[in-house]
């Protein structure tokens, strides 16, 4: 896996909408905030387009804009405006050779999980599960989110997850695990099962986050992964934010579901990792080699360019 080149001050940033749209007014706000951070901006022309009211235009157009941004020699990093729905529709229209031959920073989360899996598994590219411009940067780019954003994209040899103040790393099962990190939004991960782009978990650290789900739905999703054999050979599990997700009786939560699912597997499980649909939103490099150690309560990533 290749960690892309560092984010450079004054870089040209490509803004894309692989999933859902935003308004034209919101577009302007996104461009202004990126300029205020010292970057120059190129933006896709489908950001405010609409198909069905929930996708930013036709899937072919959304895919072609990914290709253009990777192929454009001026663009040094590609940031998703937001998540939403429909990213898995664009996969057939993405030119994987263009991505392989032009590795660069690609960042987003939620529905963008489909593209993290695609670029990691098919192009050997480390991508970033981190803030999106409309969703995070415009209105609430808090200092801890901002710090992790820049540290992850400019790291030299190692990047370390730091727990935001008052949000310590939790340990559900002790141990040490090492492997490339994969994962993202739980619903989107499950949608990959049975497709040519099914998540590959063998020998990897699995990261999971979700928003607005009942505990029964979370349970169903986890057991889909389990029954598909996708938990059998993971080296560790990292549980992110489960924003606005319900908890069952007697505190039966996502950690309990995971522990039931893995049974007596001798792998570490950490929780309360602040990455997902809430704030602060700490960036995680997907595909980078992750070392998770419950004794020291650390999560570290190797930066290998």
Task: Please tell me about this protein's structure.
With 305 residues, the chain is of the alpha/beta class. The protein folds into two domains: 12-141, Rossmann fold, CATH 3.40.50.10740; 159-302, 3-Layer(bba) Sandwich (Glucose Oxidase, domain 1). It is 29% helix and 23% strand. It has nine helices and 14 strands. It has helices spanning 24-36, 59-71, 96-101, 113-123, 133-137, 143-154, 186-192, 215-227, 254-262, and strands at 12-16, 40-43, 75-80, 105-108, 127-129, 158-160, 170-173, 176-185, 205-211, 236-243, 269-271, 284-286, 289-293, 298-302. It has an eight-stranded mixed sheet with strand order 6-14-13-8-9-10-11-7. A six-stranded mixed sheet has the order 2-1-3-4-5-12, with helices on both faces. Helix 8 (215-227) packs parallel to helix 9. The longest helix has 13 residues, at 24-36. The radius of gyration is 18 Å and the shape is globular.
How many domains?
2
Radius of gyration: 18 Å
The CATH class of the largest domain turns out to be: Alpha Beta
- Look up the CATH topology of the largest domain: Glucose Oxidase, domain 1
Give the end-to-end Cα distance, rounded to a whole number of Å.
8 Å
The largest pleated sheet is described as: 8 strands, mixed
- Low-pLDDT stretches are none
What is the SS-derived class?
alpha/beta
Shape call: globular
CATH superfamily of the largest domain: LD-carboxypeptidase A C-terminal domain-like
Describe the SSE topology:
Blueprint lengths: L11 E5 L7 H13 L3 E4 L15 H13 L3 E6 L15 H6 L3 E4 L4 H11 L3 E3 L3 H5 L5 H12 L3 E3 L9 E4 L2 E10 H7 L12 E7 L3 H13 L8 E8 L10 H9 L6 E3 L12 E3 L2 E5 L4 E5 L3
Parallel strand pairs: 1-2, 1-3, 3-4, 4-5, 8-9, 9-10, 10-11
Antiparallel strand pairs: 5-12, 6-14, 7-11, 8-13, 13-14
């Amino acid at each position: 896996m290749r960690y892309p080149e560092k984010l450079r001050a004054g870089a040209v940033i490509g803004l894309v909408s692989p999933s859902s749209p935003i308004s034209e007014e919101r577009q302007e706000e996104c461009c202004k905030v990126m300029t205020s951070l010292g970057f120059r901006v190129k933006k896709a022309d489908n950001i405010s387009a609409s198909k069905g009211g929930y996708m930013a235009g036709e899937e072919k157009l959304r895919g072609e804009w990914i290709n253009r941004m990777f192929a454009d020699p001026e663009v040094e990093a590609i940031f998703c405006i937001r998540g939403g729905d429909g990213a898995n529709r664009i996969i057939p229209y993405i030119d994987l050779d263009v991505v392989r031959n032009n590795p660069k920073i690609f960042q987003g989360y939620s529905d963008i999980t489909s593209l993290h899996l695609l670029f990691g598994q098919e192009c050997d590219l480390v991508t970033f599960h981190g803030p999106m411009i409309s969703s995070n940067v415009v209105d609430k780019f808090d200092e801890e989110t901002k710090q992790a954003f820049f540290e992850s994209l400019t790291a030299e040899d190692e990047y370390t997850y730091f727990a935001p103040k008052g949000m310590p790393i939790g340990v559900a099962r002790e141990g040490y695990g090492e492997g490339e990190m994969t994962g993202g939004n739980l619903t989107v991960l499950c949608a990959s099962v049975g497709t040519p782009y099914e998540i590959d978990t063998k020998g990897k650290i699995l990261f999971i986050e979700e928003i607005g789900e009942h505990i029964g739905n979370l349970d169903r999703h986890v057991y889909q992964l389990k029954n598909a054999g996708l938990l059998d050979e993971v080296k560790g599990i990292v549980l992110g934010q489960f924003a606005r997700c319900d908890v069952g009786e007697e505190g039966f939560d996502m950690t309990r579901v995971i522990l039931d699912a893995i049974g007596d597997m001798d792998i570490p499980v950490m929780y309360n990792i602040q990455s997902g649909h809430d704030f602060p939103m700490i960036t995680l490099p997907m595909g980078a080699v992750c070392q998770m150690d419950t004794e020291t309560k650390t999560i570290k990533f190797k930066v290998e360019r």
